[in-house]
Amino acid sequence: MALGSFLVAIIVGLTGMGGGALMTPMLVTFFGVSPLAAVSSDLVAAAVMKPVGSAVHYRQGTINMRLVGWLCAGSVPAAFSGVLLAKALGHGDSVEDLISKAMGVALMIAAIGLVLRAYLAHRGRAGGAGDETPEVTVRPVPTVLIGIVGGLVVGITSVGSGSLIIVALLALYPTLKANQLVGTDLLQAVPLVFAAAIGHLLFGDFRMEVTAALLVGSIPGVYLGSKVSSRAPGGLIRRVLALVLVASSLKMFRVGAVPLAWTMVVLTAATVAAWLVLRRRPSPAAVAEPAGLTRAESPAAR
Predict the structure, then answer these.
(1) What would the DSSP string read from start to end of 17-50?
(2) How many CB atoms lie within 10 A of CB 142?
(3) Per-domain residue ranges for the chain?
(4) Does residue 19 or residue 56 have the better pLDDT?
(5) Which of 46-55, 110-119, 148-157 has the lowest mean pLDDT?
(6) Distance CA 229, CA 193 (A)
(7) What is the per-residue DSSP string for 92-120?
(8) For 11-20, 133-142, 191-200, which range has the lowest pLDDT when averaged over its residues?
(9) Which parts pass through the membrane (predicted)?
(10) Which candidate, 152, 205, 183, 153, places its Cα nearest to that of 42?
(11) Are 81 and 155 in contact (CB under 8 A)?
């Protein structure tokens, strides 16, 4: 369990995603933990794990503090309310199944969007793909709404503090750099997960032995992943993020562990192969304007 949480925590630190979407299914599928106990124990562990990753990003300056503030204004009260709602709904299997499938669709769409964005950037038709620091204009009302929806989902299922909210941020703020996206999401998840964890400690099925095992692996894992994320190129993080989105999406559709593993192996191999092919093939902009020539001086213009 500690080794599994270490691997999941690396993904969380690297991409800001995968905590609830991967950790909770891992506990239920591989270790036979009941769903409610898995949700409660995972959230309490995440309340300790998330600050470690966010502290690394804070020191590296990859966090938009205004975004964090507006997100938390909606997510913190909504997360605690989500726990109360889950208690009022009882087991809520049909509700959780509906939310899981809706998230699966959203995550898959986001993964496809990331792939298309990377391809268009290579073709020289997408702006903002470089490593320059973008100007981000914060939109308070939709940002608070993202926090409310994300907080409710996290309180009910433990899934969404990274996956759902990071997808919404990506859609709302497309010019935000990848490492800023991850850092901002990790920090806003700290008070969000704390609120949900307190609710589950009071009303859930918290199991100390499960949480302890998760913390043994997750603290070093999220630290390692965050160190890599805060220094890694944006393009690399986007590729990893797309794979995590696909994995989380398939998990929401309850794809089995073995098919999921083989699917990710095939997708990873295909991603590497496509990257090698595109790397050897220059973009149209590079062909039309060789290094050192202006558009008027290029061979095509002549």
Answers:
(1) --HHHHHHHHHHHHH---HHHHHHHHHHHHHHHH
(2) 14
(3) 1-124+137-280
(4) 56
(5) 110-119
(6) 21
(7) -HHHHHHHHHHHHHHHHHHHHHHHHHHHH
(8) 11-20
(9) 28-48, 68-86, 98-120, 141-174, 186-203, 259-278
(10) 205
(11) yes
